[in-house]
């Protein structure tokens, strides 16, 4: 919601000394999310004035362009004296041709600076000295019309008047992100009410309008579904001048609020909606056929809406109809058959109150969000319709030369605002601040509630009865009233007190493990990112997942943030790869990212929409902690959510420099990242070749603990890289942390024993068949060497005639050390031979001669 400060100040005359940014701070302290304060027109400086075109002559030049050499009256203060054949004024060259003599325009004289830093000076062009510029709306920063000059109504002012002041070119605008529970702030009226509360000032309510005496019924209305529409009002005007222009002040306010002025009839309905928060709709009275009927749609019913779209309606849609059929989707969009046109003279104004859920559902179903549906979905003041209709009619009469027709139709189902039993001491108990009961009731009265004593029983007092105002449908529980007291008193008054941790307790083992994983990967040069847990089902095809892959079995969100990402992730890779692509696209070519987070893995047959209907989900009381049985019942409805860690790499893994060339990331780096993760759980992963999408089948490793596959790592398949737009040879790994923890041996978290004795180094080169995995050879050496073999590291691979066809030479570095003594040469040789012998027995390896 964009709120011009000048408009707001009309309703709440807060001190002139308060800047717009200080105003924003006050509103933020009350819980409004003021995102920005736009200083509109702040760049305009210098003599920008109104001018009247006195004469002009059209001249065609050699470049094919026709210009107008104009004489413009810019006021006595700025005019050049008249001569024998030239009246007093300024000479201006103008390329536009949409104006005529005596038109009132905006003139930027030399010394003026326009938006964008565009400085105006006298300059010679097309054979004349142009002593200023006649401006368009785009040049002034107030519109998009760049093909013509801004022609002002004659009554706007006189030549020489300050255009900035006259046309309100300079104003501050608050851009407020209105949360769903504060729908009343989608209006100047609502924000003004909050401003009055912030400064403890009186509030001028623009909805306080004296309705005329009952004059009978207006246009007939029948409401068949009071559940969807509990109030429907119509008011009519006749003799409207369709050529009448909206007053400049109204056009300017609409523009500042982010709405484009269109015509007087449309502008007035938009203006009143912004002012009061009540959406309105105007019908061409002569195109209505019979009474207006509010009902639900029938299956297969269709209509054409104002945007020209032919829509098939759903039975859940609430419609506005007449004898011709549907003429509008209630609260969302009107129909083309009864819209106001350039010839409409008789108008029926609609102001109604619709069910928020119905409007929200229809707007999403038809993908037709509108300013009206945005307000109805958040809750509109139930008592506002008649006043808004009267206000709209009055503006059409005043500026459109219309006549107010007698009669006003009001069809409603009266409802009583439910009072909330409330204990004034409750805010102090829940918030942690002391709020005097008298201050609590005063605060509730300030926000518009009616507070009355609750009847006592004997000597027992039950507090007060609080009736929320009609514009606050979000206030339904005592907790809602507590929140209001806290925000009005000031959130900054709430103390920040950390709870005391019980002695001997702290982070759980899983929490400590998660921290260790993050620290270890960050220490290895990876950058942690947090991705949204939502994905587009198309990504399964991009990752080349088989049709029966469990990762395709995803939960669909009932109300997704984006229709393009309606499912919960079953793997961390899509979000990481999208982040990698975004960073590479912005110039970061060498990227190493990781994420630790949960994925959502429902059982087969539980995908596409969840495991339970909303009506089947238990709703424990908020008055106390749910019981263990209730928590277990809720947990049973949730999918399996394993904790996973994934990493992606592209570009250089080690930078180049005077020491040599950069080393590009490769499949082994992805495996090493997985080993770093396993190391935090004090285990080492077994590595074996595998074929698992989205990895390259020849460069993919299965990561194992015993016989359990806990993840995969390697280089992505070229087709996947092409489909996702990734750098060539992108590598990735993903590991299930829960499986690592479940299969890791339990070890004491004590410092490792470091031997003070020297290490013995031995190198062995073993010839094995190409089909034998390197990891199996290394594991056999490690097992054969026993406790004295400290580490095994592969440092060379050779393939050639010397080792034979179908074979390769693997060179390993062995480090041997004892914890309590220096190894003798005999012990070193025996350990080395035992390791080689075990490798030969298990893999067929022989020492290379």
Q: How would you portray this structure in words?
A:
Helix content is 26%, strand content 26%. Helix 7 (264-276) runs antiparallel to helix 10. It is globular. It is α+β, with helices and mostly antiparallel strands. The protein folds into six domains: 2-42 and 171-199, 2-Layer Sandwich (Phenylalanyl-tRNA Synthetase, Chain B, domain 1); 48-166, Beta Barrel (OB fold (Dihydrolipoamide Acetyltransferase, E2P)), CATH 2.40.50; 221-412, 3-Layer(bba) Sandwich (Phenylalanyl-tRNA Synthetase, Chain B, domain 3), CATH 3.50.40.10; 420-492, Phenylalanyl-tRNA Synthetase, Chain B, domain 1, CATH 3.30.56; 510-619 and 627-743, Bira Bifunctional Protein, Domain 2 (BirA Bifunctional Protein, domain 2, 2-Layer Sandwich); 760-847, Ferrodoxin-fold anticodon-binding domain (Alpha-Beta Plaits), CATH 3.30.70.
């Amino acid at each position: 919601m964009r709120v011009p400060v000048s408009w707001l100040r009309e309703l709440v005359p807060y001190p002139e000394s308060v800047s717009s940014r200080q105003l924003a701070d006050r509103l933020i302290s009350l819980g409004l999310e003021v995102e920005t304060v736009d200083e509109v027109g702040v760049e305009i400086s210098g003599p920008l004035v109104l001018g009247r075109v006195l004469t002009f002559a059209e001249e065609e030049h050699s470049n094919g362009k026709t210009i107008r050499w104009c004489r413009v009256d810019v006021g006595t203060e700025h005019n050049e004296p008249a001569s024998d054949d030239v009246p007093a004024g300024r000479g201006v060259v103008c390329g536009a041709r949409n104006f005529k003599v005596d038109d009132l325009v905006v003139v930027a004289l030399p010394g003026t600076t326009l938006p964008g830093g565009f400085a105006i000076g006298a300059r010679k062009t097309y054979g004349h000295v142009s002593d200023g510029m006649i401006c368009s709306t785009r040049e002034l920063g107030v519109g998009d019309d760049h093909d013509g000059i801004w022609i002002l109504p004659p009554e706007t002012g006189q030549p020489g008047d300050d255009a900035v002041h006259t046309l309100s070119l300079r104003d501050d605008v608050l851009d407020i992100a209105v949360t769903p529970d504060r729908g009343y702030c989608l209006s100047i009226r609502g924000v003004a009410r909050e401003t009055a509360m912030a400064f403890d000032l009186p509030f001028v309510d623009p909805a306080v309008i004296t309705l005329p005496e009952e004059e009978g019924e207006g246009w007939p209305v029948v409401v068949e579904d009071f559940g969807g529409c509990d109030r429907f009002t119509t008011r009519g005007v006749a003799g409207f001048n369709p050529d009448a222009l909206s007053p400049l002040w109204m056009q300017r306010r609409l523009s500042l609020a982010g709405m484009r002025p269109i015509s007087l009839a449309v502008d007035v309905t938009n203006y009143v909606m912004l002012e009061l928060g009540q959406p309105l709709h105007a019908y061409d009275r002569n195109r209505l056929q019979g009474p207006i009927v509010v009902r639900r749609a029938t299956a297969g019913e269709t209509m054409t809406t104002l945007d020209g779209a032919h829509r098939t309606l759903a039975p859940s849609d609430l419609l506005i109809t007449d004898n011709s059929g549907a003429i509008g989707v209630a609260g969302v969009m009107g129909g083309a058959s009864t819209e106001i046109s350039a010839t409409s003279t008789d108008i029926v104004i609609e102001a109604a109150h619709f069910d928020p859920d119905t409007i929200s559902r229809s707007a999403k179903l038809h993908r037709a969000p509108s300013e009206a549906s945005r307000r109805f979905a958040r809750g509109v003041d139930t008592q506002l319709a008649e006043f808004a209709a009267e206000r709209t009619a009055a503006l059409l009469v005043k500026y459109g030369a219309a006549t107010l027709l007698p009669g006003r139709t009001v069809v409603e189902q009266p409802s009583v605002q439910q009072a909330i039993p409330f204990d004034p001491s409750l805010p102090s108990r829940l918030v942690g601040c002391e709020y005097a009961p008298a201050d609590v009731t005063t605060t509730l009265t300030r926000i518009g509630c009616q507070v009355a004593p609750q009847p006592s029983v004997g000597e027992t007092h039950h507090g007060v009865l609080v009736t929320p105002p009609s514009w606050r449908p979000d206030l339904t529980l005592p907790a809602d009233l507590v929140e209001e007291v806290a925000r009005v008193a000031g959130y900054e008054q709430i103390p920040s007190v950390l709870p005391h941790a019980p002695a001997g307790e702290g982070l759980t083992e899983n929490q400590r493990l998660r921290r260790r994983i993050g620290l270890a990967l960050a220490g290895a040069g990876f950058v942690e990112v947090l991705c949204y847990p939502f994905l587009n089902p198309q990504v399964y095809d991009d990752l080349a997942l088989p049709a029966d892959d469990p990762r395709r079995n995803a939960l669909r969100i009932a109300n997704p943030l984006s229709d393009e990402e309606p499912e919960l992730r079953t793997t961390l890779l899509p979000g990481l790869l999208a982040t990698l692509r975004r960073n590479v696209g912005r110039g970061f070519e060498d990227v190493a990212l990781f994420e630790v987070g949960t994925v959502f893995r429902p059982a087969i047959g539980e995908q596409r929409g969840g495991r339970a209907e909303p009506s089947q989900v238990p709703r424990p009381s908020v008055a106390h902690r749910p019981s263990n049985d209730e928590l277990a019942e809720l947990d049973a409805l949730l999918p399996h959510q394993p904790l996973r860690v994934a990493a992606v790499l592209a570009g250089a893994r080690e930078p180049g420099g005077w020491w040599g060339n950069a080393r590009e990331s490769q499949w082994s780096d992805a495996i090493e990242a997985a080993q770093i993760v396993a190391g935090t759980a004090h285990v080492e992963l077994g590595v074996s070749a595998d074929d698992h999408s989205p990895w390259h089948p020849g460069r993919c490793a299965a990561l194992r603990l015993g016989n359990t596959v806990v993840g995969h790592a390697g280089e992505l398949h070229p087709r996947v890289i092409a489909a996702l737009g990734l750098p060539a040879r992108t590598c990735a790994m993903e590991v299930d942390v829960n499986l690592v923890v479940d299969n890791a041996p339990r070890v004491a978290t004590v410092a490792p024993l470091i031997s003070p004795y020297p290490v013995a180094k031995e190198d062995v080169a073993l010839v094995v068949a190409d089909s034998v995995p390197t990891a199996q050879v290394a594991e056999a050496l490690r097992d054969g060497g026993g406790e004295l073999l400290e580490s095994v590291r592969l440092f060379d691979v050779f393939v050639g005639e010397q080792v034979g066809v179908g074979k390769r030479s693997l060179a390993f570095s062995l480090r041997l050390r004892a914890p309590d003594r220096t190894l003798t040469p005999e012990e070193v040789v025996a350990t080395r031979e035992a390791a080689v012998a075990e490798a030969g027995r298990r893999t067929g390896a022989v020492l290379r001669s």
